[in-house]
Amino acid sequence: MLAEPDATVLHGSGNSMMSRNIYHNKNQDSSISISKMDVIIPFSPDVPCDNNGQRMWWAFLASSMVTFFGGLFIILLWRTLKYLWTVCCHCNTKKKEAQKVNNPANSQAADGTPKGPDEKDEVVPASEVGWMTSVKDWAGVMISAQTLTGRVLVVLVFALSIGALGIYFIDSSDPIESCQNFYKDFTLQIDMFFNVFFLLYFGLRFIAANDKLWFWLEVNSVVDFFTVPPVFVSVYLNRSWLGLRFLRALRLIQFSEILQFLNILKTSNSIKLVNLCSIFISTWLTAAGFIHLVENSGDPWENFQNSQSLSYWECVYLLMVTMSTVGYGDVYAKTTLGRLFMVFFILGGLAMFARYVPEIAALILNRKKYGGSYNSTRGRKHIVVCGHITLESVSNFLKDFLHKDRDDVNVEIVFLHNISPNLELEALFKRHFTQVEFYQGSVLNPHDLARVKIESADACLILANKYCPDPDAEDASNIMRVISIKNYSPKIRIITQMLQYHNKAHLLNIPSWNWKEGDDAICLAELKAGFIAQSCLAQGLSTMLANLFSMRSFIEIEEDTWQKYYLEGVANEMYTEYLSSAFVGLSFPAVCELCYVKLKLLLIAIENKSELGESSILINPGNHVKMQEGTLGFFIASDAKEVKRAFFYCKACHDDITDPKRIKKCGCKRPKMSVYKQMKLACCFDCGRSERDCSCMSGSVHSNMDTLQRAYPLSSVSVHDCATTLRAFEDEHPSTLSPKKKQRNGGMRNSPNNSPKMMRHDPLLIPGNEQMENMDMNVKQYDSTGMFHWCPSKEIEKVILTRSEASMTVLSGHVVVCIFGDVTSALVGLRNLVMPLRASNFHYHELKPIVFVGSLEYLRREWETLHNFPKVSILPGTPLSRADLRAVNINLCDMCVILSANQNNIDDASLQDKECILASLNIKSMQFDDSIGLLQANSQGFTPPGMDRSSPDSSPVHGLVRQASVTTGANIPIITELVNDSNVQFLDQDDDDDPDTELYLTQPFACGTAFAVSVLDSLMSATYFNDNILTLIRTLVTGGATPELEALLAEENALRGGYSTPQTLANRDRCRVAQLALYDGPFADLGDGGCYGDLFCKALKTYNMLCFGIYRLRDAHLATPSQCTKRYVITNPPYEFELVPTDLIFCLMQFDHNAGQSRASLSHSSHSSHSSSKKSSSVHSIPTTNRQNRSSKAREAGHKQNATRMNRMSQERKWFTDEPENAYPRNIQIKPMSTHMANQINQYKSTSSLIPPIREVEDEC
Prior knowledge:
Blueprint: H1 17-25, H2 57-89, H3 91-102, H4 131-143, H5 148-171, E1 177-179, H6 186-208, H7 212-216, H8 219-225, H9 229-237, E2 239-241, H10 255-261, H11 268-297, H12 312-323, H13 336-370, E3 381-387, H14 391-401, E4 411-417, H15 423-431, E5 436-440, H16 446-451, E6 459-463, H17 471-488, E7 494-498, H18 504-507, E8 520-523, H19 524-537, H20 541-548, H21 562-570, E9 573-578, H22 588-597, E10 602-609, E11 615-619, E12 632-637, H23 640-648, H24 651-654, H25 675-687, H26 699-703, H27 705-711, H28 722-732, H29 739-749, H30 756-760, H31 770-778, E13 782-783, H32 803-808, E14 815-820, H33 831-837, E15 850-854, H34 856-862, E16 872-876, H35 882-887, E17 895-900, H36 914-924, H37 930-938, E18 957-958, E19 974-978, H38 1003-1006, E20 1010-1012, H39 1018-1025, H40 1027-1037, H41 1043-1052, E21 1057-1058, H42 1062-1066, E22 1072-1077, H43 1084-1087, H44 1092-1103, E23 1106-1113, E24 1127-1131, E25 1144-1149, H45 1155-1164, H46 1170-1173, H47 1187-1209, H48 1235-1242, H49 1254-1260
Parallel strand pairs: 3-4, 3-6, 4-5, 6-7, 7-8, 14-15, 14-17, 15-16, 17-19, 19-20
Antiparallel strand pairs: 1-2, 9-12, 10-11, 10-12, 13-21, 18-22, 22-25, 23-24, 23-25
Helix pairs in contact: 2-9, 4-6, 5-6, 11-12, 11-13, 14-39, 19-20, 19-33, 19-40, 22-44, 25-28, 31-47, 39-40, 45-47
Subcellular location: Cell membrane
Membrane topology: Multi-pass membrane protein
Keywords: Calcium, Cell membrane, Ion channel, Ion transport, Magnesium, Membrane, Metal-binding, Potassium, Potassium channel, Potassium transport, Transmembrane, Transmembrane helix, Transport, Voltage-gated channel
């Protein structure tokens, strides 16, 4: 029976080219009779094959099975023989080796004598390596990927395995078994080459394997067993069988290892993703290959008659719908082997699908959302913000950074954090998507730093968690971030927040940290304590300064309420701008007056660059400083555009303009002013005449300008008085000035306020101070920098007061610090609170005593940083005890500060400030006896030295005059520190603040009675836009802390005393903040309905005092008088702003060298009459008619002062034992007060004389 064509069983695709060739060449007339079931593979005369068409799959399979089991048998047989040989034949050898190891004298004979030269050691040295070991090590190196050759070999094997798998995909379209000629089939030749290489690699792996049995059972070895031998059988039989070649897909499991060898995969997420995908795909393809084999072959026991034609990719589809449990039913297994395999595969495949696919999807989606790299925009800078990234911190930062008042915000903000944002934070990023981008990563990872282009960023800002329960740990985290960023890019500018002041010292250990290049550390504890300390000197100043560096929009209120004036001041911010060349040669007061009156700008400071290139900020330096070309000014204004007026101002074009909005850039050329022009303009300003009418510059001087420039060179950064230089030159070159003019100029040359080099920076040359300063040079009164008052270290037991001792010690005009804390509390850094109160620009008698009320255990931990400050005492107790508060005379204090070190240890935000709020309400509800308060506050004989307010007529500054005592705690000046802004609603029970109101809009903050650390967040953006702002703020609030002082504290953690030198004493000459009283004194005429602008000009011209705000009673605008004593802050009022008598004016006043002399003369003549107190003069009231007599009298006064001090040093223990001039016995007996003294005490206004103005003194000279 001949086989019909349609009866021939074909496997694989019926459309294949080989099948068509077989059918076409089939001999229809063949007489060979075979059974239909026996005819499997048609043959062709062109290809030598079995002409019977019988399948020989068993030959291919047998080659693999024989190889596998044969090798396994040989390995097991070798191990068995080796074991038997070891057990039976080598027992004695092992015993001998054990004895030799245990015998340390193996080089000697049994009798102890050394071996002879003829004796040979039978033991092979252990250092020799056999050739088998060498070959094994070489093979191990070749396949371990530890060397370049090994890596190349491993990658090549993987690539060839994928190539062999590709050949399988191509051959899968052919029948399962077919006749092929090796010399004509190109794919078979390539596959043969690949498998020869695999065989060689298998040999290397076998040699390098330590355990041959486990190696034989590895997955990769099994793959080689079932893929390599069948290829050689194919060549021998001239036929191919797909068989188990699909097992090459298992090599995909090593794909992640290959990518790691090539350094492509670096992150854990990418490695995990590739691992999951490779395992899933390799299992999927391998299972599809098995289904393709059995379905196209059929069951052997059915004589392969139940097969079906399925392509490989249809099997792939079948496995996918099976794993996903969809099972459409369009393709299914018909063979028994296929169905049995599907039963077991669906159990593992379903588990793998349910586990791997969601995890792969999650990794892919997360990678796309916040992965990737930042692509910088050309012409646009970007900054990187990292650290504590939360909804609150980011919203506060963006609100200030992207404020509309900043007209130059062309910066993209890139946030980098290792935690993905929540929905609220993500929505915030989307609202600012044009300028904000978020990337998930860590700054500790260099790869993530490269993603955000940190090397090209304009700056990196690091935010701190202000509410962290462990501030030191938070600072350590930020320091590590700085180290990582600086290690990656040393030149990047970094601005970081720090919680604790002592942790700033660690930043100095970073080699690339350089504050001169813009690196800044904003210490929240330092600035918070500094703001509170300044409020002790001028209540409300903390609120004013906080509003100045925060960007606030102007809110217009029509009603005539206190909020209207407060919000007008809130709209002011601090800006910097270079001054126009029109100001060159003018003194600072003249420029300040011109800017305020004409430009509607408030100039408070300038930047001074020394000849060495170092810059410093001069705050209200006085009239000895002349403006130079390119001077940078610090302005208070409501908009950055307004400050441009100072840069565009031109005297020729804008001199007659009254509307400051019309001052814009003009077309005038601005040539650099010559030295002669600068000197003449300065001289004309001093003499008060115009440049045309002034005759100061004589012809001889003008003709000898070359000589003048050589003799007195003027640097472009010099701040010395040009007029002084001119007059010094005129002394050497007489001119044709009239005798009257010569006498006038001579008097001015020697006046106390004219020579900045001698008078303002060398207090030793002040007449009358010789003896006093000579003693100061032998006694350490200041620290080594001269910036702070200093005293020798004191034990804490010497400053502890009991309640009875504190009650007997009459405390008045002091500062009470109520501190909550215990042994486990984090340190708040009380040194930062005390340092501004001990600044050297205060004279010793002006220092306010400080009394700490709190836990002694906590204060012991802080005392190490406080033991070198004078006038500090401790009352162990609790701020919630009214007995302790009455013992320290809290009703007579100048300020009560309430702090807590336990605020961050509570999870509930509403309870974080419970201690401070309870203490504040406790003080406000206290009642006091007015008669006792007046007696203690004003009894001259019973006020401790250093705290009396002698000679109030010598200064117009509020605070030097004792006000009437308070009778209720509500009138005690208090400032409370808060952590949670919303808790401010609990401080004042009579206000109507909504809980959702922003902090700066609440009444306690506007009045200066509450301060929250959150207001310091604005300093991050303010420092980025202008690093001088932070320097100015720190100069104002810290009392003079400098980078040099920080380096000193980093070394010793304490202030070091130093002897007074002219250089250190010159550091005392800096301005300080004070408050002017308008109810009486030199400005009383302006207090009742006068204009603020007139007050500003008068204070500036007469006393060199720079006014910048008002502290006004809350109900001052009401027609009916009110009993409310609360005040609020008005920043930079306009010129026409109307004043009231109860106003207190914030001002920057100059340092007075002679105030210390006045105080000394008063101290040794105690209980002097009111008329004699008028003779204690300040620097402005020294007579100049007889300078020699004045000097001799001053020397006598100095000798008496020294004698008084030496006598007081011999007294018994005093309340203040740190300085002799403040010693006072504790055993005080209160005597009845006379009627005359009581009448004087009840007078609220001072009846003293006015201060002689500066220019009147100059005229007298």
